[in-house]
């Protein structure tokens, strides 16, 4: 890291880095371990305890006898290649060959033990300003605050400050948007596909923190719900409100009421949606990595 910062400082001195705008993206780096090495965490803990107990009770006369080892027991009990992947998780399994590696799941991709390499690039001359490996079970949105903080620290050696950040929708999360807002950084990060700007006839009343449905009934805030890296506010009405409603068939859920979920940082998502749809924001084709260079040239 010291060498990296020395090179970075030279790039700053040669005015190859502006600091103002950083483009951030990630790539999976394959871990030096195979899926065949995966074992259950509890099994290894049990084997360790068993091995320790054996060692404590070894008779001196039989010290030369071969005793079961952790690797022997693990080999017997570890999962075979025929086990279904959906029965494995990073919480229940790991690789003794590389305990820090995590299984990564991505639609259309093979499940592997990976590390996501997060890279921040200064858009002035495409110079890398920070690079860091994370656990593969941590989403891009959860990584972004640390990536930006480390980038800001790196650029501080040249008295440069980050003003803008470009990233794709994978980086859209509450912790990311909150960190950006707190540091007065103007970001262009498209909201994920599940984001809804309008609620199809359901109007939000900010004074009373509730929604009104097309039939005039109210959906009030009930509780918070953790969803991955994000926390949602749950709004519901009563089943009685929907009993004789003409919209019930297309509106209420199978239980018989309507529920709406909003992020606790709803305003930040709304602000981001407005920003990426400005003329400036539309110059950033954030969902297509092939267009990165074209995007930087436009900016």
Would you mind describing this structure in some detail?
There is one protein chain. This protein has helices at residues 2-13, 41-56, 70-77, 140-155, 174-182, 239-242, 248-251, 266-276, 292-298; strands at 21-30, 39-40, 93-94, 102-104, 112-122, 127-133, 164-166, 186-188, 203-205, 210-212, 218-227, 230-236, 259-263. The protein is α+β, with helices and mostly antiparallel strands. Strands 1, 4, 5, 6, 7 and 8 form a six-stranded mixed sheet that branches. The longest helix is centred in the N-terminal third of the chain and has 16 residues, at 41-56. The chain is flat. The model is unreliable at 72-86 and 286-299 (pLDDT under 50).
Summarize the structure.
It contains 9 helices and 13 strands.
Distance between the termini: 30 Å
- Stretches with pLDDT under 50, minimum 5 residues: 72-86, 286-299
Order of helices and strands: HEEHHEEEEHEHEEEEEHHEHH
Broad structural category: alpha+beta
How much strand content do the residues show? 15-25%
Please count the beta strands (DSSP E, at least 2 residues each). Answer: 13
Count of helical stretches: 9
Biggest sheet architecture: 6 strands, mixed
Rough shape?
A: flat
State Rg: 26 Å
Mean pLDDT across every amino acid position: 83
What share of the residues lie within helices?
25-40%
């Amino acid at each position: 890291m010291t060498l990296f910062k020395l090179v970075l400082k030279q790039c700053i001195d040669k005015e190859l880095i502006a600091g103002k705008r950083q483009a951030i993206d990630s790539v999976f780096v394959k871990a030096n371990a195979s899926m065949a090495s995966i074992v259950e965490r509890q099994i290894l803990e049990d084997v360790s305890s068993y091995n320790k107990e054996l060692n404590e009770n070894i008779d001196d006369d039989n010290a030369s006898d071969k005793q079961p080892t952790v690797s022997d027991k693990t080999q017997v009990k570890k999962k075979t290649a025929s086990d279904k992947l959906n029965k494995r998780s990073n919480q229940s399994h790991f690789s003794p060959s590389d305990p820090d590696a995590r299984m990564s799941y991505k639609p259309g991709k093979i499940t592997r033990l990976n590390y996501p390499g997060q890279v921040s690039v200064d858009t002035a001359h495409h110079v890398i300003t920070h690079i860091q490996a994370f656990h593969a079970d941590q989403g891009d949105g959860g990584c972004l605050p640390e990536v930006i903080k480390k980038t800001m620290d790196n650029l501080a050696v040249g008295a440069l400050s980050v003003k803008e950040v470009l990233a794709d929708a994978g980086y859209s999360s509450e912790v990311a948007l909150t960190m950006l807002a707190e540091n007065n950084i103007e970001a262009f990060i498209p909201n994920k596909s599940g984001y809804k700007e309008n609620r199809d006839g359901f109007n939000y009343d900010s004074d009373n923190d509730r929604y009104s449905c097309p039939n005039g009934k109210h959906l009030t805030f009930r509780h918070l719900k953790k969803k991955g890296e994000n926390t949602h506010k749950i709004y519901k009405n009563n089943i009685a409100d929907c009993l004789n409603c003409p919209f019930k068939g297309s509106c209420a859920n199978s239980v018989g009421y309507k529920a709406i979920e909003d992020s606790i940082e709803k305003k930040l998502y709304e602000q981001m949606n407005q920003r990426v749809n400005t003329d400036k924001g539309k110059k950033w084709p954030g969902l297509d990595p092939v267009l990165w260079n074209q995007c930087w040239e436009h900016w």
